[in-house]
Design goal:
Four copies of one chain form a homotetramer. The first copy, chain A, is α+β, with helices and mostly antiparallel strands and 356 residues long. Chain A has a single domain (4-353), classed as Chorismate synthase, AroC fold. Chain A is built from nine helices and 18 strands. In chain A, helix 1 (37-47) crosses helix 4 (131-147), helix 1 (37-47) crosses helix 9 and helix 7 (233-241) packs across helix 9. Chains in contact: A-B, A-C, A-D, B-C, B-D, C-D. The A-C interface holds A 1-4, 10, 12-16, 19-23, 25, 27-28, 31-33, 65-69, 71, 74-81, 83, 113-119, 124-125 and C 1-4, 10, 12-16, 19-23, 25, 27-28, 31-33, 65-69, 71, 74-81, 83, 113-119, 124-125. Strand 11 (247-252) of chain A pairs antiparallel with strand 11 of chain B.
Chain lengths: 356, 356, 356, 356
């Protein structure tokens, strides 16, 4: 496995859904920087399940415990290790999943790769729960970025057929960035919430799930960040964002729509504005030749619908070698897109801090 | 800069459009494997400019010269260095571009990052010509992959509004793979050629350019290749493919279309077929949890229109600090999509050989 | 900081002497391998302070707690995280050390690098205690190596002027390897113990400390392991072994003695023995061109005397900017060489598992 | 193979003794820095064979040709590729070596690892000639270091039993550094030359070779360079220096002599001198906890005698499977220690530039 990311600031994520704990080691953080731990917890709360629309107080078990790398609220420069204990480690019956892989899940590929050794319980290391330490790490990284003037915020661009407005690619209101990066159902146009929730409810009622698109903006990046070719911004951000389970596509700026444009439409004209070079449009998403041009960095990530659904599904029985039907009981989250918003932001933060 | 890729088989690409030469060092190749050099040259010819629809014999200057790593046609296991000499090193007047960055090009970001030191001539290290050594490296990698049963082929899925058919994601004819991977205008449905060429001609006549989409398939990958999280197939392939100038988006399987699907539609049911586990559909593009499931790996890359166009364009004059208009004379390639097909295949080959 | 090692099997060590815990994440371990946890604990006991010559039962607080990567006693293939809790986190007065750096310690360099942010308590991340997770990781790696026929054992070659016998470089008795790798005062010639303990006692009585040399042998390595140049066996082992605080030198085979030899003396003649190629002597330490030749791998590491001594020492006062005298009270270990033996073995194990 | 070094500034060395060329790609060099090419050539001349005591003009074929990364004499920031053509590519009879491996050489291990694919001619990629591109890369790196106040120089500390004086570890005359780093037979005490040359001549007359020790000093390093554990100065320098064929040991500061010292002798007392913290002695070689303390960095490398000697040697015949005798005709360099001095400096430069 390779659950590590980064050269300068290295993340090493560990943990299985039902093991002793999940967490992350972050190596290479600068010494002496103060961390606002409440802000870290606020980011983690955005990702945590069951938080949206609820007022239940934070459960103790979700608190990341800092084992190293901080003295009080200051980074020491030594590797930071944060652990979140698992409380749900009861020995449920997962034998079913071991023999009948869930369609759309990693059950089958993990079985082929790790055989009986794989910890299937709750999805093991492939569980969405593994994104919690990523959000923790991203929350640290984004504080360092903010101190350098860089802001990251994302929103739910689409759930099923319901759509939010898009970021204005050439000028993003700082107040919008602030609001989005604190929201648990992040929308530019908040009137889109009703139709999105309707999509989720319809999926839930059908014992089904639904996917979506997350759009992310990064403001305040100076021009000149990123390296040509394989360490360009697109390569680095894509590698990090595809590390999130469920992401199946990414596009920068106008992305796939560029395929139908002419060069005269796609090229972003340069202009002077208050003595600085800006572009009039931002089809390139703030990146030329892999390097930032000083405009907002914009990208979108496609999130597939949660594969866990309660409907009976066609699968195979790896024990008997015969086709089979799988029924998964219990409550399933019909849409993880809102909770994936802070995860996408965290992946972007981890990628960018490594290039600055 | 960081023009290197890979851990196991490391590529280090070098060269500028108008310097002494361009090339690549490949470190980690297995000793004793025979390389079909004609097949390598055939791949390079697919990428070379001016080859499509022409019968001009290969010019000597395009031949990659092997400096090390091969004895006869056999890999020695030592680092392989291949160099392609530049013949067009004449001192054209690029002062214009130094002061007036081309919209959509890396001129401006390279200027900010490297200042006067940047070799602007012909785009320097950012030139599309730098993809030639990548195709060379990919041609070596794909021969190693083919020997392990893995085939890679891509086609022009779209140029502007003209579209080709799509790969059948669950069953791809080996003969199609063979035909596509040798074609200089690769199409599944060859009747699409006329309308695509019409799109290109229309752009040319308008002194403009046009973008497109390339769809790539990899067959014969066993189940179990790839690592979870940041070294998953999607992360690895995306990092490599975004290393190609002009790529602005990538999606795996049904990609962005998954956002509008329900889980019951998106999940690919498992079935036994001739004793092996297959999926009935392939919305996941052959990848679950970052790991191959044994079905064809399918992805699409969005190619932006070539930024170099002959129309006057709005830009800035970095010398005078004023807005300006740029006119670039000379012939420009109105569409690089056909030539980008082997480059996308090469990037995929480099990514996959590192995970096997 | 960069407390990570390895490409294939990556170690990420974390923790400070007096923080919440110390530990390691190991990424890339093979799935399905059974781990003998008692054997792991036995290795850790060899390193733990105060174990030698005592029969005190193991304190609970020293037990590594596995948070992830194992199901029962089997590796799952997911990253393995082990944590050892710190119990000694009381707020002793370390202000003294912050202003008066201990000669021979990292206090001064850590102060320059991390300033006030550095966790000085107990040496922080620079503490010898940080070698505990390294021994843990090495214990896992050596079990994997043993299963492939590779054995690692080291002994105290010298403490001060007292010396042990040397390994026979061409033929090492497996029983000796077994005995050494379980010993807490590892000696080939056990009669050397008395004079070594006398050296340690003499240093203790003088409120001083004493250094030594550790010799390490690895048997069972097949010929052909290692890569030329920067990933050769010497480079890899040296990088890992110098990661241990207190190591100031390393030599392979006859090492520095080769400087005075003629080629005709240094070259190890090849011979056939039972159908295999062996060398009659082993001045090269089992490595030619960075690659194993199938003979025992032999290296020696120089360990400097523990810098913490009770004698008054000349230092500076960083607060007042004046020369000063430092007196450190409390018990100090006058010789860490015996306890460093399993740490050197662990570093070798981590290096070799990455090359196999 | 892995002939690459570095994270920040990456070296990728390629080439075989008798292939088309040898060279290096350096990725990550800063844009805009001017390179004194004559100074680069001067370093390469120190390493080149047959230069010592001769006045033969430089042969054209030894000139490194810059293919990329420089515009005039200025670094562009793009990867720099330098190639040295091989002129001696005649097809000599190496079949002998293929079947009868030279004792002390990599012939046997390369045979086991690469089998028939290995390019045995002249030692192939294992040839000492491969250190030429390393000296080239080091010459670039040392110019960047010098501009930051860091100087590197080494000398022949010993050849056989003949010894030079040692560096004064606490205060090194800049004029000495200048003299040594330009010398082709670098000695602190130049009266040692006669006895050293006598050692070499004695070896030559005996159709034998002789080893030695190189001592290297780095001045001007600020305190605080290096990372704890595996990216400490010792780990980084050792990994680079062991990349040089023939190096079998390395020690920092007092190195192996520390084993016999007491802590009270080994610890270097801190003192204020002109407002800066210095140490009165320098047993630690300028490194505490893997991090520079601002004093000169001192290390010594053991160089084994050249394995190529004209005496008959015992070996095996891999073709017949029988013991055999090998006689190598032709002129052999009886001592490579003087020429290895600039190679050791180059390796140190490559290591240090990656930590600054």
């Amino acid at each position: 496995m390779s659950s590590t990311y980064g050269d300068k600031i290295k993340l090493s994520v560990f943990g299985e859904s039902h093991g002793g704990g999940i967490g992350v080691v972050i190596d290479g953080l600068p010494a002496g920087e103060r961390i606002d731990f409440d802000a870290v917890l606020a980011q983690m709360a955005r990702r945590a399940p069951g938080r949206d629309k609820t007022a239940t107080p934070r459960k103790e078990s979700d608190l990341p415990k800092i084992l190293s790398g901080m003295l009080g609220d200051v980074l020491t420069g030594a590797p930071l290790c944060a652990v979140i204990e698992n409380t749900n480690t009861r020995s449920q019956d997962y034998g079913n999943l071991l023999s009948k892989p869930r369609p759309g899940h990693s059950d089958f590929t993990a079985y082929v790769k790790y055989r009986a050794a794989n910890d299937i319980r709750g999805g093991g290391h492939f569980s969405g729960r593994i994104t919690a330490p990523l959000v923790f790490a991203g929350a640290i990284c984004r504080q360092l970025l903010e101190r350098r003037g860089v802001r990251i915020a994302a929103h739910i661009q689409a759930i099923g057929n319901a759509r939010d407005a898009l970021f204005d690619p050439v000028s993003i209101d700082p107040a919008l960035m602030t609001r989005l990066s604190a929201s648990s159902f992040a929308l530019i146009d908040e009137t889109a919430e009703a139709k999105m929730r309707a999509e989720v409810e319809a999926a839930r009622m059908a014992q089904d799930s639904v996917g979506g698109i997350i759009e992310c903006a990064v403001t305040g990046l100076p021009a000149g960040v990123g390296e040509p070719m394989f360490d360009g911004i697109e390569s680095a951000v894509a590698k990090a964002v595809f590390g999130i389970p469920a992401v199946k596509g990414i596009e920068f700026g106008s992305g796939f729509a560029l395929a139908q444009l002419r060069g005269s439409q796609a090229n972003d004209p340069f202009r002077y504005k208050n003595g600085s070079v800006v572009t009039e449009t931002n089809n390139c998403g703030g990146i030329l030749g892999g390097i930032t041009d000083g405009m907002p960095l914009i990208f979108r990530a496609a999130i597939k619908p949660t594969p866990s659904i309660s409907q009976p599904q066609k699968t195979v029985d790896l024990q008997t070698g015969e086709n089979a039907v799988l029924e998964i009981h219990g409550r399933h989250d019909p849409c993880i897109v809102p909770r994936a918003v802070p995860v996408v932001e965290a992946a972007a933060a981890a990628a960018l801090i490594n290039l600055m």
